[in-house]
Amino acid sequence: MKKIYLGADHGGFNLKEYIKIVLCELKIPFEDKGAFIKEMDDFPVFAEKVCINVRDKESKGILICTTGIGMSIAANKMRGIRAALVDNVSFTEMARKHNDANVLVLSGKTLKSRIKPILLAFFNTKPSRAKRYKERNKQIEKLR
Protein backbone atom coordinates (compact mmCIF):
# COMPACT_ATOMS: atom_id res chain seq x y z
CA MET A 1 0.00 0.00 0.00
CA LYS A 2 1.57 3.21 -1.16
CA LYS A 3 -0.75 5.84 0.25
CA ILE A 4 -4.20 6.41 1.73
CA TYR A 5 -6.42 8.95 0.01
CA LEU A 6 -8.99 10.63 2.25
CA GLY A 7 -12.17 12.40 1.28
CA ALA A 8 -15.17 13.71 3.17
CA ASP A 9 -18.00 16.12 2.73
CA HIS A 10 -19.25 18.47 5.45
CA GLY A 11 -20.95 15.55 7.25
CA GLY A 12 -17.72 13.58 7.48
CA PHE A 13 -15.29 16.46 7.89
CA ASN A 14 -14.74 16.14 11.65
CA LEU A 15 -14.15 12.38 11.49
CA LYS A 16 -11.75 12.82 8.55
CA GLU A 17 -9.71 15.26 10.61
CA TYR A 18 -9.60 12.72 13.46
CA ILE A 19 -8.57 9.93 11.06
CA LYS A 20 -5.64 12.08 9.91
CA ILE A 21 -4.40 12.15 13.50
CA VAL A 22 -4.70 8.35 13.76
CA LEU A 23 -2.88 7.85 10.44
CA CYS A 24 -0.05 10.07 11.66
CA GLU A 25 0.19 8.01 14.85
CA LEU A 26 0.33 4.83 12.75
CA LYS A 27 2.91 6.43 10.43
CA ILE A 28 0.75 5.71 7.39
CA PRO A 29 1.17 8.15 4.50
CA PHE A 30 -1.98 9.86 3.32
CA GLU A 31 -3.26 12.62 1.11
CA ASP A 32 -6.34 14.64 1.98
CA LYS A 33 -8.47 15.27 -1.11
CA GLY A 34 -10.97 17.49 0.75
CA ALA A 35 -13.15 18.95 1.99
CA PHE A 36 -10.79 21.39 3.62
CA ILE A 37 -13.38 23.45 5.44
CA LYS A 38 -16.65 22.40 7.01
CA GLU A 39 -19.30 23.98 4.83
CA MET A 40 -22.13 22.69 2.64
CA ASP A 41 -20.72 20.77 -0.31
CA ASP A 42 -21.41 17.74 -2.52
CA PHE A 43 -20.01 14.32 -1.61
CA PRO A 44 -19.65 12.98 -5.20
CA VAL A 45 -16.86 15.52 -5.82
CA PHE A 46 -14.73 14.04 -3.04
CA ALA A 47 -15.63 10.44 -3.89
CA GLU A 48 -14.35 11.00 -7.41
CA LYS A 49 -11.13 12.71 -6.28
CA VAL A 50 -10.28 9.81 -3.97
CA CYS A 51 -11.35 7.00 -6.28
CA ILE A 52 -9.41 8.30 -9.29
CA ASN A 53 -6.27 8.05 -7.20
CA VAL A 54 -7.12 4.64 -5.76
CA ARG A 55 -7.90 2.96 -9.07
CA ASP A 56 -4.80 4.33 -10.77
CA LYS A 57 -2.36 3.35 -8.03
CA GLU A 58 -1.72 0.58 -5.55
CA SER A 59 -3.35 2.60 -2.84
CA LYS A 60 -6.45 2.61 -0.67
CA GLY A 61 -9.11 5.20 0.02
CA ILE A 62 -11.26 6.31 2.91
CA LEU A 63 -14.48 8.22 2.30
CA ILE A 64 -16.81 9.72 4.90
CA CYS A 65 -20.19 11.42 4.74
CA THR A 66 -22.96 11.70 7.31
CA THR A 67 -24.29 8.15 6.80
CA GLY A 68 -21.63 6.78 4.45
CA ILE A 69 -24.37 5.71 2.06
CA GLY A 70 -23.93 8.50 -0.48
CA MET A 71 -20.16 8.09 -0.61
CA SER A 72 -20.54 4.34 -1.01
CA ILE A 73 -22.97 4.72 -3.92
CA ALA A 74 -20.81 7.33 -5.66
CA ALA A 75 -17.56 5.40 -5.20
CA ASN A 76 -18.98 2.14 -6.49
CA LYS A 77 -20.03 3.85 -9.73
CA MET A 78 -16.35 4.12 -10.65
CA ARG A 79 -14.60 1.32 -12.52
CA GLY A 80 -12.02 -0.52 -10.42
CA ILE A 81 -13.46 0.61 -7.11
CA ARG A 82 -14.82 -1.78 -4.52
CA ALA A 83 -16.05 0.48 -1.74
CA ALA A 84 -17.42 -1.01 1.46
CA LEU A 85 -19.52 0.86 4.02
CA VAL A 86 -18.60 -0.62 7.40
CA ASP A 87 -19.03 0.20 11.05
CA ASN A 88 -17.11 -2.56 12.82
CA VAL A 89 -13.96 -4.67 12.59
CA SER A 90 -15.71 -7.86 11.53
CA PHE A 91 -17.40 -6.24 8.51
CA THR A 92 -14.13 -4.52 7.60
CA GLU A 93 -12.25 -7.82 7.62
CA MET A 94 -14.93 -9.46 5.50
CA ALA A 95 -14.91 -6.57 3.03
CA ARG A 96 -11.16 -7.04 2.54
CA LYS A 97 -11.12 -10.87 2.58
CA HIS A 98 -14.16 -11.56 0.44
CA ASN A 99 -14.44 -8.47 -1.77
CA ASP A 100 -10.89 -7.08 -1.86
CA ALA A 101 -12.37 -3.69 -0.91
CA ASN A 102 -10.01 -0.87 -1.82
CA VAL A 103 -12.10 1.98 -0.42
CA LEU A 104 -13.33 2.07 3.16
CA VAL A 105 -16.50 4.09 3.64
CA LEU A 106 -17.53 5.34 7.07
CA SER A 107 -20.38 7.30 8.55
CA GLY A 108 -19.38 10.62 10.05
CA LYS A 109 -21.26 9.42 13.12
CA THR A 110 -18.90 6.47 13.71
CA LEU A 111 -17.58 6.53 17.26
CA LYS A 112 -13.96 7.60 17.48
CA SER A 113 -13.24 4.60 19.71
CA ARG A 114 -14.00 2.32 16.74
CA ILE A 115 -11.80 4.09 14.22
CA LYS A 116 -8.32 2.76 14.98
CA PRO A 117 -9.42 -0.91 15.13
CA ILE A 118 -11.38 -0.52 11.87
CA LEU A 119 -8.43 1.15 10.15
CA LEU A 120 -6.02 -1.54 11.33
CA ALA A 121 -8.37 -4.24 10.06
CA PHE A 122 -8.64 -2.49 6.69
CA PHE A 123 -4.87 -2.11 6.32
CA ASN A 124 -3.83 -5.50 7.68
CA THR A 125 -6.44 -7.89 6.29
CA LYS A 126 -5.41 -9.50 3.02
CA PRO A 127 -7.85 -10.57 0.31
CA SER A 128 -8.67 -14.26 0.31
CA ARG A 129 -6.91 -16.38 -2.28
CA ALA A 130 -9.90 -18.69 -2.47
CA LYS A 131 -11.04 -19.21 -6.05
CA ARG A 132 -14.69 -18.43 -5.28
CA TYR A 133 -13.91 -14.92 -4.03
CA LYS A 134 -11.58 -14.18 -6.93
CA GLU A 135 -14.28 -15.31 -9.35
CA ARG A 136 -16.94 -13.21 -7.64
CA ASN A 137 -14.74 -10.13 -7.79
CA LYS A 138 -14.19 -10.72 -11.52
CA GLN A 139 -17.95 -10.95 -11.94
CA ILE A 140 -18.36 -7.62 -10.14
CA GLU A 141 -15.89 -5.94 -12.47
CA LYS A 142 -17.81 -7.21 -15.52
CA LEU A 143 -20.98 -5.49 -14.29
CA ARG A 144 -19.62 -2.06 -15.12
Helix-and-strand structural type? alpha/beta
Helix content: 40-55%
Q: Name the shape in a single word.
A: globular
The main sheet orders its strands as 2-1-3-5-4
CATH class: Alpha Beta
User: Distance N terminus to C terminus?
Assistant: 25 Å
Average pLDDT level: 93
Largest sheet: 5 strands, parallel
Extended strand count? 5
Rg over CA atoms, rounded to whole Å, is 14 Å
Structurally, the number of domains stands at: 1
Which stretches are low in confidence, meaning pLDDT under 50 for 5 or more residues running? none
The CATH architecture name reads 3-Layer(aba) Sandwich
Structure notes:
The chain is an alpha/beta fold and 144 residues long. It has a single domain (4-142), classed as 3-Layer(aba) Sandwich (Ribose 5-phosphate Isomerase B, Chain: A). The chain is 49% helix and 15% strand. It contains 6 helices and 5 strands; from the N terminus they run E-H-E-H-E-H-E-H-E-H-H. The protein has a 5-stranded parallel β-sheet with strand order 2-1-3-5-4, sandwiched between helices. Helix 4 links the parallel strand 4 and strand 5 (103-107). Helix 2 (43-55) packs across helix 3 (69-76) and helix 4 (89-99) runs parallel beside helix 5 (112-124). The longest helix is centred in the N-terminal third of the chain and has 13 residues, at 13-25. It is globular, with a radius of gyration of 14 Å. The two termini are 25 Å apart.
